[in-house]
Amino acid sequence: MDDMERMRELSRILKEASKAYYSEDREIMSNFEYDRLYDELAALEEKTGIVLSGSPTVTVGYEAVESLPKVRHDSPMLSLAKTKSREELRDWLSGHDGLLSWKLDGLTVVITYDAGKLARAVTRGNGEIGELITQNAMCFFNIPYTIPHKKQLVLRGEAVISYTDFNNINDLIPESEGRYKNPRNLCSGSVRQLDSRITAERRVRFMAFSLVSAEGVDFENSREKQFLFLREMGFDVVPYVRVNEENIMDVISDYESKVAKYEIPSDGLVLTYDDIAYGESLGRTSKFPRNSIAFKWQDETAETVLRSIEWNTSRTGLINPVAVFDPVELEGTTVTRASVHNLSIIEELKLGIGDRVRVYKANMIIPQISEDLDKGDNIKIPHACPSCGSDTQVKQVKEGRFLECTNPECPARKIKSFVLFVTRDAMNIEGLSEMTLEKLAGLGMIRTFADIYRLGRYRDRIETMEGFGRKSCDNLLSNIERSRDTTADRVLYSIGIPGVGLSVSRLLLKQFGDDLDRIRSADEEELAATDGVGEVLAGNVAGFFRDEKNNREFDDLLSQLRISRRDIAVSGDLEGKTFVITGSLNYFKSRSDLKNILEGRGAKVAGSVSKNTDCLINNDSTSTSSKNKKAGELGIPVLTEEEFLDKYGIEH
């Protein structure tokens, strides 16, 4: 293949990857592979002196999707030139001071404030045209709705979801529907939702990284002073360090030592000149500004030998492949395993037992296989479930091929369903880890959800189990007994209907008057009439309750519980009111518990105080916190928890 043919091939592959990544919230190759192919294309263009029309090296991003209104940016949003060389990053400073910050891995958003209020938010899109997401941006949990600066202010930042929030949210998505691979994909899908309520549930945060303009403010030619100003306005600013040629190498090393534990996804660093005028005097290329440069971590790769593929059955019956290879050292840790996600990846890599493979840590954290050097292509797909021995079948999910166990009574599926049942947002039973549940199921003590509430009859046997004694057994049974007092939304969520998380459960119960029997007897059309519940979820719910066995087991479970009717959900006596909760609580275990009660009575719970807030709940009503100050400025009452409960007639 000559250079021109290779360039055309690379351009096609990279554009397909960009389209999938930016417009369809999915990945068809790793960042490692994309960077390798991009660098190969750039090298060929430099060698030949030819740049093909539409080459990814001269285009920016991808076209905005059609589902949201398109908006043209006032000024183009360019990509950054990048390097993996620390020396090149140091030399780039050319004697000037710079600001070195995290390069966050989320979705870039441009936000405009007018007269002190959030007026417009637009995604990066293709750099020229983005998508209007103002209502969704207002749901970012850490973004100010109003700011002290009353003239126009325009800034850019990254919408991101932390690893903790990503894992919590992803756990609620049935594997059969295809979970998100990483926080960036989840964030992109969350920011571009048509229903802003979904965005609000996803805990999207906004990290400012650039001030475009602030009418009437003199920053004395300093980017750092712009950052400090943004902090004063209430924005979370991407963490940065002021650097020069003398200290930048040490600062890079310090960032490197923190990346594995940094809670926000990051795929490198960004270096910007502090001197605004100097940076702007350098101008720009057709794609890159010259006042900033990106540094991407040099992925540490290692060659090893693939020894086996393990197959693990999940709660939904999907059988997930995990590659096991000879131990290698990566980023300071020993790595022996890497998730391969699905059959499609096994086929694309042409994996074979005994093959030499290259492995690396994506963003220095997650082990992945980047390449199979031998392409043995000899992995045998199991025809029997590794847990129960039942037949398997291949299932197409979101353009990926997955392996699935066909046995609904598969023990592995049962254990995973029990794990969901006892989680905090479901029945909230402490002391029942996955390992303990496996032991109890293996001994025949639990076969259904209701059996968990009958474990008291096995007290003597449980006390003799490894890791248990009289005290720990008493604690477990006490936790189980306490969980009998619950609410219908927790119960509906806990039984594991595909796609029905806690928020969907609440939507259904609000629609059906907090009555589980009405939901059980409703057909798809009635269920789909619920705001926020589409045909697919409606079909899942109706299908679940059409099954006689499911109904018998559900009746058995209900007989073990004491379900409080959320008459507060039916009354709606706080409809139209907005509350903000801050500080520690005395009467509720967590803010989530109080939030559930407020939302059940029709109220909205916001993350920040605004003119639309009816009440700020803070047990330290005399504190000088920013929320208390804001409430004072706007004349909004600040009530202690007890004052609030008494005023609104909530039992405590």
Beta-strand portion reads: 15-25%
The CATH superfamily title of the largest domain: DNA ligase/mRNA capping enzyme
Domain module count: 6
Structural class: alpha+beta
What can be said about the biggest beta sheet?
A: 7 strands, antiparallel
What distance lies between the first and last C-alpha atoms, to the nearest angstrom? Answer: 76 Å
The helix content is 25-40%
CATH topology of the largest domain: D-amino Acid Aminotransferase, Chain A, domain 1
Instruction: Tell me the CATH architecture of the largest domain.
Output: 2-Layer Sandwich
Q: Provide the low-confidence segments as ranges.
A: 61-65, 567-571
Number of strands: 25
The CATH class assignment of the largest domain is Alpha Beta
- In DSSP terms, counting alpha (H) and pi (I) runs of 4 or more, how many helices? 26
Question: How would you describe what is shown here?
Answer:
The chain is of the alpha+beta class. It folds into 6 domains: 3-48; 70-295, 2-Layer Sandwich (D-amino Acid Aminotransferase, Chain A, domain 1); 302-401, OB fold (Dihydrolipoamide Acetyltransferase, E2P), CATH 2.40.50; 411-483, DNA polymerase, domain 1; 487-565, 5' to 3' exonuclease, C-terminal subdomain (DNA polymerase, domain 1, Orthogonal Bundle), CATH 1.10.150; 572-647, BRCT domain (Rossmann fold, 3-Layer(aba) Sandwich). The protein has 26 helices and 25 strands. Strands 13, 14, 15, 16, 17, 18 and 19 form a 7-stranded antiparallel sheet that branches. Strands 2-12-11-3-10 form a 5-stranded mixed sheet. Strand 4 and strand 5 (117-123) form a beta hairpin. Helix 1 (3-23) runs antiparallel to helix 2 (31-48), helix 12 (411-421) crosses helix 13 (434-442) and helix 17 (488-494) crosses helix 18 (502-511). The longest helix has 21 residues, at 3-23. It starts with a helix and ends in a 5-residue tail after the last helix. Residues 61-65 and 567-571 have low confidence and may be disordered.
